[in-house]
Amino acid sequence: MGCKGQLIVISGPSGAGKGTVCKSLLQKNDFWISVSATTRSPRNDEIDGVNYYFITKDKFLEKIETEDFLEYAEVYGNYYGTPKSEVLKVLDSGRDVILEIDIQGALMVKKSYPNGLFIFILPPSMEELKNRITNRGSETPESLITRFTSAHNEISFVSKYDYAVVNDTVDSACKKIESIVIAERCRVDRMNGVFLKEENINE
Ligand code: 5GP
What we know:
Helix content: 25-40%
Strand order of the largest sheet: 2-7-1-8-9
Largest sheet: 5 strands, parallel
Strand content: 15-25%
Number of helices: 7
Order of helices and strands: EHEEEHEEHEHEHHEH
Number of strands: 9
Bound molecules: guanosine-5'-monophosphate
Distance between the termini: 8 Å
CATH superfamily: P-loop containing nucleotide triphosphate hydrolases
CATH class: Alpha Beta
CATH architecture: 3-Layer(aba) Sandwich
Structural class: alpha/beta
């Protein structure tokens, strides 16, 4: 019907399980996930160009200057940003795009792209959030404390989002997100009056 893809912005505190939920969504749907650029060092299992584009701070600052990012933010002392041109190209092709980004970045996207779908993932409880971050084993004791503290602050931003999804199990969280995306696709205001044209009614 010539509609653009939906921009699906997913945020949530560290340990809410955003990464796992997004991975599962990608396995079951034709979503495209944006690969961010970051100045953070790769973790053991991370691959450049797959998990992130790992770049230097100088390069990152240069890309800010040349307006290459749809949004960017400093998170836990490192820069993270979404490459703009790739995302816009995929949306134009009609495919839905997922951005898994932090709250500051999401709020920046909301200003330039208010039609985006803003989804906040919550852990089932703060206790469970703590267990998940600790069991991940990739954080230093200092970064664990930073992430716990910011998690509390981050959760207060849920009201800025369109939808809140509790990640009790990955399967149910995915089902909820898939349902939100389907419902959103049926919104009359997303269809640009396409049903007013007779030739489109039987499509
Ligand atoms: P991590 O270092 O654990 O991979 O990510 C830390 C935080 O940065 C997460 O909340 C993640 O969602 C966020 N993040 C990842 N990529 C981007 C991005 O391109 N922009 C913004 N604003 N945040 C990002």
